[in-house]
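Thread: Newbie trying to understand structure tokens

Hi all, I'm a second-year student working on a class project, and my supervisor (Dr. K.) asked me to get a predicted structure for one chain before our next meeting. I've only ever worked with sequences, so writing a 3D structure as a token string is new to me. If someone could post the tokens and maybe explain what I'm looking at, I'd be very grateful. Here's the chain:
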Amino acid sequence: MTLRQAFFQLGMTEVDKPLRELNEKEEFSALVNWALNKLPPFQSMDLRKKVNGEIYQTPIHKSGRQLVVGKPVFRASHPGTILYNWPKEMKYELLDVDTIATSVIRADIVNAAKIEGRLLTEQQIAEKENPQMNWDNQIQKESLQIKLVKTERNCWDVVLTEEERNLLGEFLDI
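---
Reply by user tm_fold:
Sure, no problem. This is what the structure looks like when written as tokens:
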């Protein structure tokens, strides 16, 4: 057994416990452990720590097999601020870089609302997180299906509707 294997779970009391239910010390330990053992090479994450009621954030970047920790930056000091806003059933084994980044953004949204004296629902947090989405229309449009037509040369041509052509034209700015 290597030293790394021996200390792999150090600081983590319950791996199967949702991250929302962890206290700050357990959450910090889980994220540091995840950064050391599971952060993909050439990716980065933000690690937050509360010190004397003030939140500090530092980037952690994995370059190859080496972790590079950036300078801690002050983020907030309002009472009741949170470090992360995890999805309800998020567990250690399901963590990834995108989930950590999203939970940091969501925590910033919640903290900004707390400073203004407001409490936000999950729906309101989602609206602020993704303002470009139409949250009033709860019915999700089905994604446009690409139609393929076989040609005489045994090739496949993509057939687009007028709506799809317009969308592509807007996207490509033609």
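A couple of things are worth pointing out once you decode it. Strands lie at 44-51, 54-63, 66-69, 73-76, 147-150, 156-159. Residues 97-115 form the longest helix (19 residues). Feel free to ask follow-ups in this thread.
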